[in-house]
Amino acid sequence: MKISYNWLQQFLKVDWEAEKTGELLTDLGLEVEGIEKIESIKGSLKGVVVGEVLTCIQHPNADRLKVTTVNLGDENPVQIVCGAPNVAAGQKVPVATIGTILYDEKGEGFKIKKGKIRGEESHGMICAEDELGLGKGHDGILVLEADLKPGTSAAEVFDIETDYVFEIGLTPNRSDAMSHFGVARDLRAGLLQNDLNLELISPSVSDFHVDERTLRYDVEVENKELVPRYCGITITDVEVKDSPDWIKNRLKAIGITPKNNIVDITNYVLHELGQPLHAFDAQKIKGNKIIVKTLEEGTKFTTLDEVERELSADDIMICDTDGNPLCIGGVFGGLKSGVTEHTNSIFLESAYFNPVSVRKTAKRHALNTDASFRFERGIDINMTEYALKRAALLIEKYASGKLASDISDFYPIKMEDFQVFLSYDNAYRLIGQEIPKEKIKNILASLEIKINSETAGGLGLTIPSYRTDVQREADIIEEILRVYGYNNIEFSYKLNTSISFDSNNDTKVENIVANQLSALGFNETMANSLTKPEYNSLSESISDDAKVMMLNPLSNDLAVMRQSMLFSGLESVSYNLNRKNTALKFYEFGKTYHKYGDKYQEDKHLTLFVTGNRTKDSWQSNNNPSDFFYVKGVITSVLERLGIQKLKATPVKNDVFSEGLVFSLGKIKIAEFGVVKRNVLKEFGIKQEVLFADFNWDNVLKFSGNKNVKVASLTKFPAVKRDLALLLNSKTEFKEVYNLAFQSERKLLKEVDLFDVYEGDNLPEGKKSYAVSFVLQDETKTLEDKQIDKIMQKLQQSFEKNLEAVLR
Residue 399 needs a FRET pair 20 to 30 A away by CA distance; which of 4, 64, 115, 427 works? Predict the structure, then answer.
């Protein structure tokens, strides 16, 4: 949230430096994340002065140029070549002198230099309105008042304003500080603790008066729970035009582009007092009544951004007598009822909408506006009428409007202020030290918290309506502490703690594995359990029927609970790769979420992500890329550390893996891993190979801790390893090679491993190359070459016959 210091000083005449004020705001809990110097015109027209055109003659070498001599306030007039059609002798004009930097609409500067134009020297530039940033006019140079003295700084003539803008990281509970007046109110409380008692100046509405009642709209609210209060007033004879400069400067300082006086005034009051307002073109309201209600599900409505939306039956809608929707209450206005340059009468709205309802509507339609931001967090219901009067008086003054009706105010049930009792003992206990009772009472008074009663043990308090976040005793104590100052609380150098016994074996197993993976160079990550619904389409194994949708998603990117931890992990991989971290090893403990019928299921997983080199690049070591077998070794070491043995590794068929293995105990799957397919990686902008492992953690826990170890003597006879390079159809999977090998040789074949896959140049179309290793061993004798060759020939023939393989 942006807060203008000049604007803040309208309410509180504090003359501190901006940095010092920012420090106090931070101490008060309104954390200032940055302070930016703002100029109403970039560069503040430094180097631009008033000049008097002494002579003006035709350029000898150009029909559209004039050669002028200009008095800049000293004894030496300068020659300037000017192309403006309206330049003439005797004029007072703005002149950018040599060395001046002027800025265009994009903020890019250009420096005025001495030069020659068509053979004539030019020592400066006579400026048009747009060249100075004072407007958009470029028909000719800007002619100034005749009584101005040559040499006068243009910054004095045009009243250039310099401001400092605080960027405040406002926490969601502090809805009371979502305005300049709210921040000033908090700042005053802080200044009182620094023995600086300043008056809080609130804008006056005492001049509010209706002379002629010529146009009135009654207000009807169908659901008072959704809309506890709704105020409105009609203003006629308005003239839609540019706002005065001071309003423009205030809005531009906080990043809002001025539009016209009506819209600017509603925005101004919003950021001044924190009360959202909306102006309707009265001519587009049918009948004499404003009806606040909900409409049928699926009703079409076009908003100000020219997007047609389908309404929910729960959306608060502002309608006219005929039931035509004019605005989504508290969120966004309608295209057909908005103020235009042809508007001459308006209906001005100021209301309090139910925060939960507004939040659901804003998220449902993916609309995040300044109004919804405030309504969602809860505004001050007692500010609605005051803010309406404030805006009406500004429109009356700066848009020539006439107040044409009394205020229509629907407020059937007055919202009562919260009553809280504060115990001194509880305050001392939570704060950690005793604060004098008079100090506590002074702090509460500075926060406009009224003391209704006082006993020896505490205070009976009434909380102002704008403090929607203060409803409990603990909240009161927090308010006292933040104003008193966290830095003023003494702390002890003695630390008391207790040792707890954790009997949860699951946590111990997690810690064992986490420590082992960390020792292997892995970093732990923690991804959001909410993810994009579009990720479900990346894998056929993810059921669309089993997805768990959020009823009120924060955004479209966080609308569904994840069914796989692969995609959220790939987001982390992509994030790091884009920042030149190319050697990555991640692990994450997390859950996946599924819906089967009416029941929900959560499954716990451990996932690994490996890509790039095993170690960081160094002159001491060669590049050693992580590969399939490296990850296999990591998985095996983790499971063996937990006592899980006799694992069976078989090829896995998974549409996210180009090649993969599954480790299982009997029919129970323990883990699966493989090389992620390129088409999946492409969705995340990843161009290098990524290996992914997924442990079913519930099954891991089930079998971990099995320490029964059988000892057998090592065989005396060596194993033999042979390799085959097979040219296969691109659709053939390693699983088929694996199964066929063991079918062909059951007795002596011990292991089948894939150690290289190649697809690309120099291979026939539709083909790929597998490099497969076979381990043969006889535990009773040493294998002979003839026996080995016979087995390998049998395997080769089997591959050729059943898989159409060709030996490379």
Answer: 4
